[in-house]
Amino acid sequence: EVQLVQSGAEVKKPGESLKISCKGSGYTFDNYWIGWVRQMPGKGLEWLGIIFPADSETRYSPLFQGQVTISADKSINTAFLQWSSLRDSDTALYYCARIWIGWFDSWGQGTQVTVSS
Amino acid sequence: DIRMTQSPSSLSASVGDRVTITCQASQDIRDYLSWYQHKPGQAPKLLIYDASNSETGVPSRFSGSGSGTDFTFTISNLQPEDIGTYYCQHYDNLVFTFGPGTKVEIK
Prior knowledge:
The complex is a heterodimer. By secondary structure, chain A is mainly beta. Helices cover 0% and strands 55% of the residues of chain A. Chain A has strands spanning 3-6, 10-12, 18-25, 33-39, 45-52, 57-60, 69-73, 78-83, 92-100, 103-107, 111-115. In chain A, the strands form two sheets. In chain A, strands 2, 4, 5, 6, 9, 10 and 11 form a seven-stranded mixed sheet that branches. Chain B is an all-beta fold. In chain B, the strands form two sheets. In chain B, strands 2, 4, 5, 6, 9, 10 and 11 form a seven-stranded mixed sheet that branches. In chain B, strands 1-3-8-7 form a four-stranded antiparallel sheet, with no helix packed on it. The radius of gyration of chain B is 13 Å and the shape is globular. The termini of chain B are far apart.
């Protein structure tokens, strides 16, 4: 069974750094792109970017380029989403999802990130 | 950039009703369109890919159609467990775009 398990909820202050994770199992992690999707409170789904774990090739949405960093460690079947300096507006629920061809076919349970002074 | 719109933004229907959601692309996207169901407190779930193909295990009351710029998602016999928000999503050359979503409620 394909599973993506994300790290737990985080509460941070503005300006702090953060790295959340997404661990895949039940499939060959290297062979599938992993994407990150954001849902701000009361809003819809937004695509942040993707990574191909086999070679760590990444693509970012123009809206999020330079705002977040996506990485992966294929030795532990894990993808990461990180911020160097959080802002209040980064408060959201973040999902990782496996990509097959052009759709997100399996999703993590989501990681709530709350940024507040 | 390709923009996706959905209508309506929300709807309320009775159990057993046929519900239709439309998704429009700002330019021709062939059939590169998927549909997701997102229930509160749960991860989104893929229902339809390539405009009209059902994901394995998805109930037959969910269907999709269309190509080019205009797409339709239908729930043929609305059930109480179908409440949630439905999103269309386009992909092209490793760029992904979600529609704004349609919230479905039961009358």
